[in-house]
Amino acid sequence: MSPSMIAPVMEEENKKYQKGVKHLCDNGLTKVPTKYIWPEPDRPIFTISDKLIKPKQNLKLPLIDFAELLGPNRPHVLRTIAEACKTYGFFQVGSQNPKLHEVISRFLAKQVSYGNGQVVNHGMEGDVSKNMIEVCKRFFELPYEERSKYMSSDMSAPVRYGTSFNQIKDNVFCWRDFLKLYAHPLPEYLPHWPSSPSDFRSLAATYAKETKEMFEMMVRAILESLEIDGGDEAAEELEEGSQVVVVNCYPPCPEPELTLGMPPHSDYGFLTLLLQDDVEGLQILYRDEWVTVDPIPGSFVVNVGDHLEIFSNGRYKSVLHRVLVNSTKPRISVASLHSFPLTSVVKPSPKLVDEHNPPQYMDTDFTTFLRYVSSREPKWKNFLESRKITI
Ligand SMILES: O=C(O)CCC(=O)C(=O)O
């Protein structure tokens, strides 16, 4: 084929990939298209050319029981959080623990009294997270025409359906579609969220509100674990801050060893609360090895984002993570990303800076971040690295 004939064919191919991997799979696939094949060094390392070179390693992250935060064990739980944020940049919060709902309610003073005088706890009930996963599954099962209504190249659109990591910039695509929902302030964004399935908005809104409440509770614990006296100012700013809910859909992949669901990246915000279904896929970089996080259904994986690493002046680590796909089971995860207001300047807390601990990061803002990501592939830890002060 002459070059003049190849160009239109490639353009047509690329248009097909822009429609997302779910659309591609729905039309039947037996092999991974070249567009999704990662260079060998970046592929999942447990297989190369179908040979097992390393057994897959699983990691049980420290499991934090927030119910213990209000009891005599509080200092111990805070130390566990501090240790987890330094060592892994990750921990898990068990929401299966019936006491957790009670604690969240007490913490937020959100107990609802019903007519018969019964007090019902109003924390994150197991059903809220189960319903969220379930309605998100139904969203991704809708026909392409319905899902594609939300496709947009505008990064600040209140709702955005997309594919890969950055479908405009990525040379090699990831095996992932996503639905990104701006969530705070909720009344401003909710009317833009998908109206189909018909219960999507109400279930996703409940989920967004309750994860925001969990975030607020965790922020207070994290600031205390940093031993910052009077961290209230930062906590209040974060309460007014941004929340973006990202629903990730990873369809089964015919050749999972050749591709990735998400490339290695760190999260831009302060803290991410990740809900996964029961299919494993999340890996974190721990001591230079990729280790798989065991999913605990109904629990949350919590990770330090770039802003917390900056705010803590490097004490807590925003760690690289990535997602593997598999050949049999679809996987859904829901990441709730929280941070300061988009207009804030993020900098090391003055309480963690002194003559022995000079600031390690430049002040940074959202405009700088957007300029950065729109100029290159936002992979690895580049953005955070670019904000480090090197002497
Ligand atoms: O799907 C996952 O387990 C991780 C998702 C993730 O890393 C993200 O949304 O930033």
Automatic annotation (TrEMBL):
It comes from the Eukaryota. Residues 241-344 form the Fe2OG dioxygenase domain. Involved in the regulation of shoot development and salicylic acid (SA) homeostasis. Keywords: Cytoplasm, Iron, Metal-binding, Nucleus, Oxidoreductase. The lineage of its organism: Eukaryota, Viridiplantae, Streptophyta, Embryophyta, Tracheophyta. This is Fe2OG dioxygenase domain-containing protein. GO terms for cellular component: cytoplasm; nucleus. It is found in: Cytoplasm; Nucleus. GO terms for molecular function: metal ion binding; oxidoreductase activity. It comes from Arabidopsis lyrata subsp. lyrata (Lyre-leaved rock-cress). Belongs to the iron/ascorbate-dependent oxidoreductase family. PROSITE patterns: FE2OG_OXY.
